[in-house]
Amino acid sequence: MSVPAESWEARAAGKRARTLAKIPRAWRLDPAQLNSAKRQRNLTGAFINRFLQPREIEIVSQDSVELTRAISNAEISAVEVTTAFCKTAAVAHQINNCLHEIFFDQALERAKELDTYLTENGNTDQFHVKGVDTAMGYVGWIGSNLGTKDPSQAHQVESQITTELLSLGAVLYCKTSLPQTLLFGETKNNIIGQTLNPHNQNLSCGGSSGGEGALQALRGSTLGVGTDIGGSVRIPAAFNSIFSLKPTPERLSYREVANTNPGQNTYRSTAGFLSTSVGGLELALRSTLSAKPWIRDPAVVPIPFYEDEIFLVRERADADGGARELHLPLKLGVLWTDKMVGPHLPVLRGLRTVVSALRDAGHKVVDWEPPLHATAERIHASFLEADGAHDVHSHLDLSGEPLISDLQEAFQLRPPLDLLETQDLTLRGLEYEAAYSDYWNSSPDDGQIVDAVIMPVAPHAAVIPGKYYHTVINLLNYSVVVIPVTKANKDTDVVDPSYQPLNDLDKKNWEAYDPEAYDGAPVGLQLVARKFEEEKILGIAQIVTATLKAQGMTNCNTSVG
Amino acid sequence: MSVPAESWEARAAGKRARTLAKIPRAWRLDPAQLNSAKRQRNLTGAFINRFLQPREIEIVSQDSVELTRAISNAEISAVEVTTAFCKTAAVAHQINNCLHEIFFDQALERAKELDTYLTENGNTDQFHVKGVDTAMGYVGWIGSNLGTKDPSQAHQVESQITTELLSLGAVLYCKTSLPQTLLFGETKNNIIGQTLNPHNQNLSCGGSSGGEGALQALRGSTLGVGTDIGGSVRIPAAFNSIFSLKPTPERLSYREVANTNPGQNTYRSTAGFLSTSVGGLELALRSTLSAKPWIRDPAVVPIPFYEDEIFLVRERADADGGARELHLPLKLGVLWTDKMVGPHLPVLRGLRTVVSALRDAGHKVVDWEPPLHATAERIHASFLEADGAHDVHSHLDLSGEPLISDLQEAFQLRPPLDLLETQDLTLRGLEYEAAYSDYWNSSPDDGQIVDAVIMPVAPHAAVIPGKYYHTVINLLNYSVVVIPVTKANKDTDVVDPSYQPLNDLDKKNWEAYDPEAYDGAPVGLQLVARKFEEEKILGIAQIVTATLKAQGMTNCNTSVG
């Protein structure tokens, strides 16, 4: 390998400058505007709207379902919609630093060709788009698409899911920011620095799909694709007051998607969606599966979109005119704590809000006491760390860039795990999965097994940068939808001095709660169903959000409609 | 661990004696009868029938579908059917040494309780049945069910698929023999010695499910459960002139099934069926899936039995009154050789027979030239060998028994593979799968992609013991049905002296062909469809066998109806 002639700092700075230069002059903010953004805590809603025209605001306030309907009905042109989202994304990037790649020209060209079905798509920077870099936060990947291994293939490769979205009429116009390694709950790397939370600039936008989460909070996108192995599409949704779907791995194609250490295939990363509505997620899943991804990607399980499942859940909800009079109420478990790190007060209040709303609407909610999540967390972490960070360092070494400070300890180069130990961990993981499944089946004291479980996504609202200590487990490969629920409120979420921490980590996390800093931070929760139950959990998420809305109990959607 | 007081030889001999002692006196053969069997080349059909009554022969000549129909219609009792199969299995074991466990009492007890739906099931000795040993060929497992790890659980555990079969009305009455380690294409271990081929006692019955294959050739079973990671349900079917279904892993439950090195979960062993008819396989799959195994086993993908798929294939076959006038003929690929080891003449003739019959019936057959199987074979073998035989030796060490001579080289204890190397192999395996899938998709020169591919199961008919050199690849996890096609014939399958071996291994295999020894050896072929296409490949297998039968081109089924 030849030593790069240019320093990594220079390459990263060059990349940043080229990205900014791709923003048309008319959409550039002046220094006074940029300064006003820096002083602003909450960039969403009213603040970003001052840089947009009323018609643009009207467009970007709609979700994917409404927009595709309007375009199909020829009420609006694809070009007008694309222009509005490109402009909003351009503004969002200037005030919130959330993009890795900009290709508005390509998008507008494509929009001109389209006159029917269309969705506006952001894309996290793991997905290959022809003609565009996939840097995935590595300086060494700039200009070369190293995720594809063969340098002659630079910018030629297209991730299968990208192809599918394009074939379905999507317009791709930007790639959003990610953390170095992808394995971090914040969004920071040596190319763009960091992306902060548009709802509260003191806080992180989460990670890994943090840029997409931030962009959607600013309405610069209504639908994005991301991946999740430890919370990467769930955390950004919860932190930015939007929605996300983390399917079971093998439901959607991961072919030709860049990833950290893809040879670790025991616990798989999964492609998923972030959207400004549950309907947007449903549209994305239904559309993508209609392309039969399993024919081109042998890793995808051939399960078509089950309309029945969605309708069954909806019919239950609609029976007798409303959720309150259901014949067959949902039965939901609630995991108040994973017994490793207790939730901060805003998250606890979020759980109580949902439980109370669901009970008032006639649904059953039971406490969830599964096999200890700590067991799963240890196994899962072992797999993520198994290669001793060799993969990450191979990419860092391409440019000589260092690990970002937050990851220096976790990703220190060390000997890989022993294979026999890894195989033993595999067995223990399978045993845990079986035990969890047995617990789930054991629930029908009343003849009904639990439909889904409500859980925190993280023990805190959108986190104070540098204070992300605890990762969400993913050992079970369950189907998950994250919904926005509330926002931290310094007046109601006051510290309880009598709290007894469970352990040192819990103490550290508990002490990190700062009512003043967190004020206004989004809180999302995850709704978890079993493997390959994506349609069911989407249906349940629609019921839960409708229930919250009907009871006026949510303040999460002020900026996301 | 305490040192076993008894020698492994004594423990193995004790086990053999206890198994034989479980055969009721009335069913025991006398020394003259046993000697006549030893002198007999072919034990199937007429020979074994001399020890049975006409009514018993009538019963055991029927397949699972006919028997379940007869029992459901109360034309015959469950007890009478069970008795006939127990007696046949008892005779088969005395002349062919194919059982590990006998529990006829338990079976007859159960048959008395049943008056409706019932299938007669053999069971390879990996599946836990309550009250019965699972020794899986290891002396050290005798009496303790070590597959379950917890000795207090001895004989208490039931494999999930056992539970499912029982819930569906199956009667289990014996467990059939396997090779030590399961990873061998013949059936030999230190407990029972070896099981030979009932069609030709010079030859092996194959492995790992060799005992089940042999028992079915002798009509002592119509349906059996086995597992396959490298050919273990396919090879015994091909060698014993019966049928088998190797599904995609995760289609059926593997929960609580004993296995070699279950921590190697990258390339998974899969549970499958052996049967005396395609209809028996279809019945087994439909029945097992009707129990929704995914609810209790989180490793199972929730895909119900697709009746549509079966009917679609059948309708094609029946259109316009016969296969010859199909509107939509099947399009099948044919893999003449895997380019590592060329097929012996009986196998080549088998391929030609099928291709010619299919073409005559109006189906399309095209040559299949996929990415080199050698690539897949190397990757697959690396995973099977990755743990350096540590798992196998841990079980051998329980009793002090040695490896059988055939396996001493392959299973020598050695350092496990390096984890990074394993992860790299994982990636190369995924790439191979994707390339194979691309090749499959590239086939529609005529607008029709290949429905399935016809391949040898092994490069030879039922093999001469000690001459099994080459293993069938399984890297792709495809859905496979094995069908019997022909038998080796010393008069037609004469050696071609001009053959140029491809390599040393091919030379060794080619030289091992002996027309005299192989005469009468069954030849089966595999029909391969893509992942999770079990219903489709069963439907295609029905068309192919019907086509062969209609053209009088098969001599495979003389003893299996």
From TrEMBL, chains A, B:
Q: Which InterPro entries match?
A: Amidase_dom (IPR023631), AS_sf (IPR036928)
Q: In terms of domain of life, where is this protein from?
A: Eukaryota
| Entry's family note | Belongs to the amidase family.
Q: Does this entry carry the keyword S-adenosyl-L-methionine?
A: no
Amidase domain residues are 80-538
Pfam families the UniProt entry points to: Amidase (PF01425)
Which protein, by its recorded name, is this? Amidase signature domain-containing protein
For this UniProt record, give its keywords in alphabetical order, as a comma-separated list.
Answer: Hydrolase
Q: Where does substrate bind?
A: L182, S208, I229, G230, G231, S232
